[in-house]
Structure formats: C-alpha cells, structure tokens
Amino acid sequence: MTTTPVKVLLAEDDRNLGNILKAYLEAKGYPTRLTVNGEEAFNAYQRENFDFCIIDIMMPVKDGFSLVKEIRSMDKKIPILFLTAKSLPEDKLKGFELGADDFISKPFSMEELLARMQAILRRSGQDKEKAPDTTVFTIGDYEFDYPRQILKWKASEQKLTSKEAELLKLLCEARNEVLDRRYALNKIWFDDSYFNARSMDVYIAKLRKYLKEDPRVELLNVHGIGFKLLQP
Predict the structure, then answer these.
(1) Domain parsing of the chain, residue ranges
(2) Whole-number Å distance between alpha carbons of 157 and 154
(3) What is the enclosing helix (H) or strand (E) of 184?
(4) Measured between alpha carbons, how far is residue 120 from residues 47, 60, 184, 217 in Å?
C-alpha cells in the first residue's frame, strides 16, 4: 500500500540553513518547499497544498508570528513548528496562543527537529505510518494488556498503576520512535510542570525495571526531547 508523503512548508530567512534543512527533510522522505520570508511563505501556502509548517519567528518582510496568524485564519489544524533564536517565555506563550504546536530553539540538531516533527504528526493523526489503534501490545516477549493494566512476562503478571499503563501505552504507540516528553506530560498529567516531569521520570524508571527480563527491549532517555521504547 502506498502512502502520500507529508509535504513541508519551510520558512527560514537564513538561506544556507534553509537549504540544509530542506536537503535533510527530503532525504528523510518529506518533500519541502523553502521560502525565505513570511510573505513568500504565505504566497506559497496559498498556491500549494502543505501538510506541515516549519516557521522561523524572526524573518524580514513578514515575521513568523504574523505568518502563522494568517495561516491559522485559513487552516486551524495544519501542524506548525516554530524555529526560534531565543526561547523567551513570552514568545512561546504568544506562539502557542496563535496555534503553534511546538518550538525548537537554535542551534538544534537535525535529529531533534525530525523527532519533534514526527511527534507532532503522531499527535495530529497525520503520521502516515502511525501504529494501529489497539489495546493489547506485544513488547518483545512481553504482552501488555492496556484495558486490564497488566504486563505479562511468560507465567508472571505485573499489575500497573493507571499512570504506568497510560505512559506505557504512549510508548507502545510510538514504538522505536521518540515519545515527546511534553506531549506525554500534558496527555497524562495535564500539565508539564517541573514537579510532574520528575514524577514521570520515576514512572519511566519503574517501567524500565518491569521490562528488564527481555534484553532486546530498551527504554531510552532521549536528552532534551523525551523517551524511546526500542523493541524487536
């Protein structure tokens, strides 16, 4: 079965960085249209069909905030990731109020950009290869029964708490890819505060302990981004 690739609108006034990002995204299977200011980006948006927007905040002619406001007036759902050279709380607040899905601060790695992009696509339901909706998951030689909150290993069963079960379900749905930390916090705790983040780290440690019997299964920390459940 063939799938339609996710087409990206990239608005970045640094042409060198823009060309590097475009080449990287296209190598990963995301056709990308590079524009170098907000006005050019909006003209491209009006003429072509895009599935995802990556937008620099500081651009000539028309800045990223103005561009996103115009895009959101036409499309409330298209995923938008802001690129920013500064991570001031007021800028992030303004961006989220305009309808941004996430921010990434310069300088960043290509791997982090791709991970955040894929996490947004999974959340928005536009990931063309997302895991099927299911309630019982196979994790190596484990079986995870989500409705009953039970993790089975051969003849033994581990009863999970509700938060352990919710977190493991999100990890299973993102199997072998990065589960965005903030998404998990907002989905389960409804708040991504420091206290809740530390609480989630405790649950991750517990899940890692539960899954230690199968050496092929790994639960990794992806620094600054989230977690990855690696399974055969």
Answers:
(1) 8-124, 136-230
(2) 8
(3) helix 181-188
(4) 24, 27, 12, 25
Q: Rounded distance, CA 21 to CA 30, Å?
A: 11
pLDDT for position 134:
65
77-123 pLDDT tens trace: 899 999 987 666 777 788 888 888 888 888 888 988 999 898 888 87
**Helix (H, G, I), strand (E, B), or coil: what is residue 164?**
helix
| pTM (2 d.p.) | 0.57
Of the candidates 25, 27, 21, 59, the residue with the CA atom closest to the CA atom of residue 42: 59
Topology classification of domain 8-124? Rossmann fold (3.40.50)
CATH class belonging to 136-230: mainly alpha
Amino acid at 200: M
Average pLDDT of 192-199? 86
